[in-house]
Amino acid sequence: MIVTIDGVAASGKSSVASGVARALGIPYVSSGLLYRAATLLGLEAGLPLHQAAALLAHLQGNSLRLEPRAEGNRVWAGERELTLELHSSRVDAGVSAVAALPEVRAWVDAQLRALPEPFVAEGRDMGTTVFPHAEAKFYLTASPRVRAERRAKERPEDVPVIEAALTERDRLDTVQSAPAPDAQVIDTGPLTLEGVIEEVLASVRAPLA
Ligand SMILES: Nc1ncnc2c1ncn2[C@@H]1O[C@H](COP(=O)(O)OP(=O)(O)O)[C@@H](O)[C@H]1O
Ligand SMILES: Nc1ccn([C@H]2C[C@H](O)[C@@H](COP(=O)(O)OP(=O)(O)O)O2)c(=O)n1
Predict the structure, then answer these.
(1) Closest ligand 1 atom, CA of 32?
(2) pTM as predicted
(3) Rounded to the nearest 5°, which phi and psi values hold at 100?
(4) Is 123 in the pocket of ligand 2 (CB under 6 A)?
(5) Interface predicted TM-score (ipTM) of this complex, two decimals
(6) C-alpha span between 151 and 146 (Å, rounded)
(7) Omega before 118 cis (within 30°)?
(8) pLDDT confidence of residue 177
(9) Where does the UniProt annotation locate this protein (predicted)?
């Protein structure tokens, strides 16, 4: 079984995916972490982030891989763990350029499709491009202000600065961010995290009941 949770930046995808995965006793897969790790490695190596061939060779040379778990995903470059370095504002600012490269997208998609089922996959195009055959699909939204207020608890910048950066990233990520036609859209703004997880679980379990 595959459950997909897509949505805009800071809409709650990874927190909801983790909660749903723990309730179902299966791992979740955070696809954005692979784009973030590609960005971090590219920045560290001083590579121009729009040069796909050099970036891909660098990713493959560094054995970049995702370790999906229900409690939180980890990302490795060989023996080095990158996980705690992936949510900086520097990576936030560069990641859309890397995610726009078709060669990088194909590389990420191949890594994701090689993972053993079952799992909950979260990102932008899980229910559309990567796992169109998924059993249950969700798309999370929330206003830019609500999302910025949530992110402000995890970043050093103020709410207006974060809101502007989120709105810009929404714009840059538009191409791959459309909801699947068969996805259930959930506005997480008026809900608690637990409320969103319950709503997803109720839908996932409904056909099984
Ligand atoms: N109703 C809610 N639904 C989802 N996340 C919420 C909600 N309220 C607060 N949050 C918080 O919003 C923050 C951003 O969520 P996160 O899962 O990192 O989003 P994304 O993976 O979409 O970037 C987290 O700290 C999460 O706990
Ligand atoms: N399946 C995916 C996942 C992420 N991306 C891109 C779009 C985002 O700007 C970055 C980072 O994604 P991530 O989900 O980690 O970011 P947010 O937590 O939503 O801020 O990667 C993508 O293009 N396709």
Answers:
(1) 21
(2) 0.95
(3) -85, -10
(4) yes
(5) 0.96
(6) 9
(7) yes
(8) 84
(9) Cytoplasm
